[in-house]
Amino acid sequence: MSDGAFVLVVLVPVVVAVLSAVTASANGVLDARTNGAQLRTGFAVPFQETARLLRQQRRTLPGADSLLWRISSAGIGIAAVLKVLVIPLGGFTFADLPVGVVWFNAMDVLLWALWWLLGWGANSSWSLIGGYRFLSQALAYEIPLMFALTAPAIGAGSLRLLTVQTAQTHVWFVVWMPVAFLVFAASVVAFASWGPFQTALGADITGGVLLELSGIDRLLVTGGRYAVLVAGAGFSVPLFFGGGAGPILPAGVWVVLKTCLVLAGLLTVRRLFPTVRPDRLAEIAWVIVVPLTLLQLAVVAVIVGVNGGAL
Amino acid sequence: MITAILFWVLTALAVAGGIAVFVVNSMARATYALAVSFVAVGAMIVMLHLDYIGVITILMMLMEMAVMAVFMVMFMGMNPALMPMDMTHNKRRSVILAVLVFVVLAAAIVFIPWPNRTGSPADDLTKSLGDAIMGSKMLVMLTISPVLFATIIAALVLANPKGRYDRYGDALDRRDVDGHPDPDDPIPGGLG
């Protein structure tokens, strides 16, 4: 990392925060449209909510494990930033890890701990149930996700994201690894506790892990959730969408543009599917999705073997 | 210089995390203190340029601790898992054992004539690691993994006093008069 990059690294959390705010606004606008409210009010929702939560006083139940609780509410956004750090912007990358794909996986497992601790720390039954729901959901999505992540790695013959990106010069991985991409996208939705996989924050348990959160902690978690969506969408760009490849515009801009397109997809998913109970998800994920993903891997391996490399 | 400082900070974190496991009075804190300790060790492995093993250590340990916390709370029997409790037992013997093991290991570090390095590390360490594990040792891995998995399942079955196995014996594929499996699927839904 050169000195310039060392300074630029400070910008990463800012960019993640801006993209999260944009996503939250877009989500607010879509909500407003559904409810027949003015689109302008929907757009302002995240900013009003931020202002409200910044002024709100923290409340804590007696017996809450404040240390673990605060660590976990701050940690979700940090995990997202740590994911974004290894995403290449064209030929440039902040942290050129030789095992970037595994790094993403490790940070996603960090979210297991954080969501459960959020539920644990509050010392409230509903929150704790939310935490447990997340973990059981995690058991369902993690195995397919791990296999799905190996597809681009096999295609490129490397775990380094720069290499994965260059292997897509001719054909994007999403074209011949559609199942892997769908599993990846579903897992992003799941580890952000979003859309059909939001039972940890479910209305049936009065908000679950969010129930007792207030003030800055609640802001960090709700914002962190969008940041995790941004990080997941951003990560799909070097894995499946050819990284910064694109005409005219610089690579960095293309990465952001593609990220926004994937984010739009994730926002849509929330409105298309009903909530899935984690116990039901486990059976579907292990009996149907895991074999499908393995089949995808076999196809990728055969193509790579016959072709002597990526398409 | 910065590398050395970082290494020592991580060392301190790993040891402090290990100590905290026994000092704190909550299951969750003990579990995640252990997780911090392991993550610090994983980061140190990354600093030794063993990126894959380091990151995979962080990944596995975080996942393991997240699941372990659930199991500890679940199998604690009475309910102290949710209350403040002492994380130590059998203190005197544990202390003697721990000190002995530490002395033996520390003495080993000092007194063993360590061989000098022969050869040089491969260019792509992840690839050579994969070759080492999956090449000549594939048969061993294929044998060990089902045995390990079976051990986990068996241990769970034995540890769970009110589980399906205890209630129904090993005839889990029998059917009721209505043709449905008996016992019924405890979690209906999913695939039915």
TrEMBL record, chain A:
Pfam families: NADHdh. GO terms for molecular function: NADH dehydrogenase activity. It comes from the Bacteria. One of its GO terms (cellular component) is plasma membrane. It is a multi-pass membrane protein. One of its GO terms (biological process) is aerobic respiration. It is found in: Cell membrane; Membrane. Belongs to the complex I subunit 1 family. This is NADH-quinone oxidoreductase subunit H. It comes from Subtercola boreus.
TrEMBL record, chain B:
This is NADH-quinone oxidoreductase subunit J. Gene3D superfamilies: NADH-ubiquinone/plastoquinone oxidoreductase chain 6, subunit NuoJ. GO terms for cellular component: plasma membrane. The keyword Membrane applies. Belongs to the complex I subunit 6 family. It comes from the Bacteria. Pfam families: Oxidored_q3 (PF00499). It is found in: Cell membrane. It is a multi-pass membrane protein. It catalyses: a quinone + NADH + 5 H(+)(in) = a quinol + NAD(+) + 4 H(+)(out). The keyword Transmembrane applies. The chain crosses the membrane at residues 6-24, 31-50, 56-75, 95-114, 134-159.
